[in-house]
Amino acid sequence: MRLAVTGREGQVAASLVEAARGRDDLEVVAVGRPALDLARPDTVLAALEAARPDIVVSAAAYTAVDLAEDEKDLAFAVNATGAGKVADAAARLGVPVIHLSTDYVFDGTKGGPYVETDPTAPLGVYGASKLAGEKALAAANPRHLILRTAWVYSPFGKNFVKTMLRLAADRDEIAVVADQWGNPTSALDIADAILHAAPKLVDGRNFAAFGVYHLAGQGETNWSGFARHILDTSQAFGGPHATVRDIATIDYPTKARRPQNSRLSSAKFQGVFGWSASQWREAIQEVVRRLLLDTRQALSV
Which end of the chain is more exposed for a tag (fewer CB within 10 A), N or C? Predict the structure, then answer.
């Protein structure tokens, strides 16, 4: 099976490339700029056609949540128009598409975990652009999975785990928001879920469960609880540690509003595909261990 994943630097793309190493039955081709640039729609079809995929994973996105408030046109060009073009290219090539979306399509006011049928109501430009992308993608290619995920971290790219470890190396105390809740999700798990689902989409002529799914780590916490577990894990591995001080969202103003509740129920994905993510507290250990090992190796060079 040959997957073409959009974006080279993203956490999911890097996780998929890593997962394919050493496997004879799987090839992952990461396609990114300049060959494929979602802000330049004319590049999409040719780049994906050259990759000769059995399935396309639409992972590239504009993810600067606060900057999107000032760059609305670019955010929509990449996340909405670009996503639609990726799905259209996949349809022209006769292959299904798996698209990564976000908890930011919700406003965070629900009392419990969000399910796929809950009404969407994005709070800012980023969420609105991703929701528009879901709609454009679904319209362009009926053979699609839209995977909404949240609080993604990994050994790759920019993410909250890396930020906490970096700050802890320089500070004794870190202030972290305590009134926003969600499911920390390892991109390594997301890649595993995609590779679990992809053969069913490619080979299953009778597969009829296309549509929207939530895919997030098991268990929930707030950002400060997430930070504490990261740093406690780091300390256990001999890495940096700092005290975490709880603050409210109002104490950490940002240009874009964040949903206070980002919890996602992944029961639908588990029921259809028979796969569930790791408990987030356990998944953190592997990522922190790898990041600390990478840091030590870099210092020893």
Answer: C
